[in-house]
Amino acid sequence: MNSFCDASRRSLLLGLAGLASATTTSAAHAASARQINADASQALRTLYATQPRAKELGQRAKAILIFPRIHKAGFMVGAQTGDGALQVGGRIVAYYNISAASFGMQAGVQRFSYALFFMTDAALNYLDKSDGWQIGSGPSVVVVDKGAARSMTTTTLTQDVYAFPFGQKGLMAGLGLEGSKITRIQPSA
Predict the structure, then answer these.
(1) CB–CB of 184/28 below 8 Å?
(2) Do residues 57 and 117 touch, judged by C-beta distance below 8 A?
(3) What's the rounded mean pLDDT across residues 34-60?
């Protein structure tokens, strides 16, 4: 049992080290634009198929920032990173990276997706003008779970940005956006 725990701990630490390395060099090694486009489109279709309210929100949004694959790993110290595409009027107009580091009681490895629905011009302008948007500062962001999505109506939509986490795989507690930094990137062709 003890050797199993040691092996698990080593695997987590190696995964965390690789993820931390990817987080710090993600802009330089971004996926190709073609791959991000394909992954983002597929992720958005998946979200719309599983959460119909997200599709309704997408029709009203000024823009949608889709992170199709965010990788998160941690053992006391954690990191997450992923590349995504900003869609305006159904067209992809820019690419972004999301990354974060965390400290505390945590252990595990996880992959998930996020879609951020920008509901106001002010929120979209903030993303465009900021040199890296630190979530928790700037426009207000509401994370929507399946239960909250069912109760959303046009009169309850009052926030700047709505975030839908989806497609979680792996074992790790928490999907918080707080403390994440979103930075514009230039993917390879």
Answers:
(1) no
(2) yes
(3) 94
Mean pLDDT of 142-147: 60
- Assign 3-class secondary structure to 104-165: EEEEEEEEEEEEEEECCHHHHHHHHHCCCEEECECCCEEECCHHHHHCCCCCCCCCCEEEEE
Neighbour-count burial for 32-60, b at 16+ CB within 10 Å, e otherwise: ebeebbebbeebbeebbeebebbebbbee
Instruction: Please give the model's pTM, rounded to 2 decimal places.
Output: 0.73
Of 65, 69, 43, 45, which is closest to residue 55 (Cα–Cα)? 45
Closest CA to 164 of 185, 153, 150: 150
Helix (H, G, I), strand (E, B) or coil at 5: helix
For tokens 């000024």, the residue is 62
